[in-house]
Amino acid sequence: MIIESNGKSPRIHESAFVAATATLIGDVEIDEGCAIMHGAVLVAEGAPLRVGPNCVVMEQAVLRASGGSVSQFPLTLGEACLVGPGAYLVGCDVGPGSFIAAGVKIFNGARLGAGCSVALNGVVHIKSEVGEGEHIPIGGVVIGAERFTLADGPRIREALQKLEFSEYVFNVPAGPDAGAEIATSYSSFLRKIHAEDQSTGALQPVAKRSAPPKKPAPAEPAVKADVGKVYDVTFYELEEMQRRRETGKKKT
């Protein structure tokens, strides 16, 4: 589904494939040679979303760019990146040739260098960086410059407290009422930016495969034979030959 949002429509290179059940909303650009698979959602809400050449976004992955008057979080995939099924990327910059496995989460302001990989269910948190060619293992967590595993629960909680997530992403200071304030302000933002969304249908028709050239029909005779008459004449000639043979036998 292709949806115009906030006055901007997705742009898809003619060589790219976008599955019929994928959803592209707003200022989204898909470069040449890409494949956007079934159930994927790519949405630009106040900031651009760019997918470089020859990228793959697999089933049920969600890519989101977001921006308001205070903060801008565009999303960029460099050339030849793969985003696995069920991954969630928001407001991040992914370098060319990167591999993002199934279930990975990459958050606002994160930057991934060229040729890096994040394995199953890995997390790259806000304002964090993954270096060029670096590998984040299964379930690995990146917070700032630190690397954690799932066994580092207490250390992860301590690092998260220093992130100021709500203030950085939603411009709401941390506190007991932060969740309610975030929901209220974000709901207002989403209702406003999507108020006039409208489906534009498929951006480009699927090219029809050219039919194979037809073999020339065999030339028809200038005069069509009457099959019934041919059969009758042939049968008569056979009977006549049989009668002559019998007459010759009687004479001898």
Can you walk through the features of this model?
- The strands form three sheets. Strands 1, 4, 7, 10, 11, 14, 17, 20, 23, 24 and 25 form an eleven-stranded mixed β-sheet that branches.
- The protein has helices at 153-161, 165-170, 178-193, 227-251, and strands spanning 2-4, 11-12, 17-18, 23-25, 28-30, 35-36, 41-45, 49-51, 56-57, 62-67, 72-73, 75-77, 82-83, 88-90, 93-94, 99-100, 105-106, 111-112, 117-118, 123-124, 129-130, 135-136, 141-143, 146-148, 198-199.
- With 252 residues, it is an alpha/beta fold.
- A hairpin with a 2-residue loop joins β23 (141-143) and β24 (146-148).
- The termini are far apart.
- The chain has four helices and 25 strands.
- The protein has a single domain, classed as Hexapeptide repeat proteins (UDP N-Acetylglucosamine Acyltransferase, domain 1, 3 Solenoid).
Shape: globular
Fourth CATH level, the homologous superfamily? Hexapeptide repeat proteins
**Number of extended strands:** 25
Report the CATH C-level class. Answer: Mainly Beta
Residue fraction in strands: 25-35%
What assembly state would you assign to the polypeptide chains in this entry?
A: single chain
CATH architecture: 3 Solenoid
